[in-house]
Amino acid sequence: VCLFLGVWGDEFSVLRSPQTVIFQDGGWPLPGERIPDIAALSMGFSVEEYLPWPGLGVGDLFNRPRATVLVTVKGVDKLTLPEKGVSYPIENAVPFSLDSVANAIHSVFSEETPVILQLAPSEERVYMVGKANSVFEDLSVTLRQLRNRLFQENSILSSLPLNSLTRNNEVDLLFLSELQVLQDITSLLSRHKHLAKDRSPDLYSLELAGLEEIGKRYGEDSQQFKDASQILADSLQKFADEMYNLYSGNAVVEVVAVKAFNSALSRKTRSILQSTQSESDNPYNLAYEYNYDYAVIFNIILWMMIALALAVIVVSYNLWNMDPGYDSIIYRMTNQKIRMD
C-alpha cells in the first residue's frame, strides 16, 4: 500500500508504507513524545509504556519492515505533496530522538550489524552504527563538505530548478545541501542493495532545518519560501519513492513537520554524586507502577508450569502401569525364550 500525503505544520505523515504495517485513516492526535514509540512498534519492537493510539494497526507480526525512514522538517506550515494520504496532528510537539529505537535494533541484531544513520546536516550532527560506516563513508556531513558537494558536476544544482533561490546566498545553499544529502543517501545505498535484503532492519533519521532558515531570512510570505517549500515537497516524495523501491516495497517512510518545537531537546543524565532515593520519597509504601509486560511474563510462566506438570503426571502414570516384560525392551531381551530364539 503506497500512501502519499499532504503535510501540514505539526503533523505526522506517512509517505510510504508496506502492507504489513497498517496506519488507520483518522484524525487521532499523536503525542509528540510518543513518535519514537510509533517507529519502534511499526518495526516490531516493544515499548516501555502502553500507547493507546488507534492510528497504528496490528499488521503482520511475523513480517516487519526492513527499514524505517523518519524525516523531520522544521519551520514549515504546509508542504503540498502530489496526493493526500494518511496524516495525524501532533499534540504537544516536543523534540524527540530515535536513540531508543537504534539501541533496540543494535541490541537484538548486533551480530548482523544493521544500518543505523541519524543525521542533522545543519547542525553537523551525525551518528552511524553498523554497516552505515562503510556504506555512507563518502557522505558529506560537515557544512564545508556540503558546500563543496553542491558545486561538483553531479550535484542537484545541475538538474534542480532553483527559481527564486540563488547560489550566492548561504541560507539558500544550506537548504540545497540538505536536498543533496537526500540524493546522496539513495545513491550510496543503491551501490549496496544487498543490505536491503538481509534480515536485520535498518533505521534512518534525518532532520532538515534549511526551510526554517529560509523563512527567517526572507519571510514566510516571500517567493523564496514558497519555491523552497515546493522544491522540498518534490524532493521528499522522490526520496520516499527511491527508498521504498530500494527495499523492495518493505520500508516505512515518514515525515514529521513542525513549525517550532515547544521546548529544547534535553537528554536525561545522572550525576555520579546523585544520592540514592530515600524512604521519604515513598511515604505511603505504595507498590511499583504497573508494567505492561507483566501479563506476557505471567502467561509464559503459568502455561509453562502447567505443561511441565501435565508432562510429569503423564510420564509417572505410564511408568506406574508399565509391564516390564512387554513394555520394556531391556526386560524383553533378557527373557530366556527370546534369547533361545
Describe the overall structure:
The structure is a single chain. The protein is of the alpha/beta class. It is 37% helix and 15% strand. Strands 3-6-2-10-4-9-7-8 form an 8-stranded mixed β-sheet, sandwiched between helices. Strands 1-5 form a two-stranded antiparallel sheet. α1 runs parallel beside α2 and α6 packs antiparallel against α7 (223-246). It is elongated and about 100 Å long. 33% of the residues are buried. The chain crosses the membrane at residues 294-320. GO terms for molecular function: signaling receptor activity.
Helix/strand layout:
Layout: E1 7-8, E2 11-16, E3 30-31, H1 35-42, E4 67-74, E5 78-79, E6 87-91, H2 99-108, E7 116-120, E8 125-129, H3 132-135, H4 143-150, H5 170-190, E9 202-208, H6 210-218, H7 223-246, E10 251-258, H8 294-320, H9 324-327, H10 329-333, H11 336-340
Parallel strand pairs: 3-6, 4-9, 4-10, 7-9
Antiparallel strand pairs: 1-5, 2-6, 2-10, 7-8
Helix pairs in contact: 1-2, 4-5, 5-6, 5-7, 6-7
| Total E-strand runs | 10
Spatial separation of the terminal alpha carbons: 72 Å
- What's the shape? elongated
Beta-strand residue percentage: 5-15%
Our Rg estimate from Cα atoms comes to: 28 Å
Q: Summarize the biggest pleated sheet.
A: 8 strands, mixed
Summarize model confidence as the mean pLDDT: 82
What is the H-and-E element order? EEEHEEEHEEHHHEHHEHHHH
What strand line-up does the widest sheet have? 3-6-2-10-4-9-7-8
Number of helices: 11
Number of domains: 1
Can you tell me the residue ranges where pLDDT is under 50 for at least 5 consecutive residues?
A: 1-8, 266-280
Relative helix content: 25-40%
The class by helix and strand makeup works out as alpha/beta
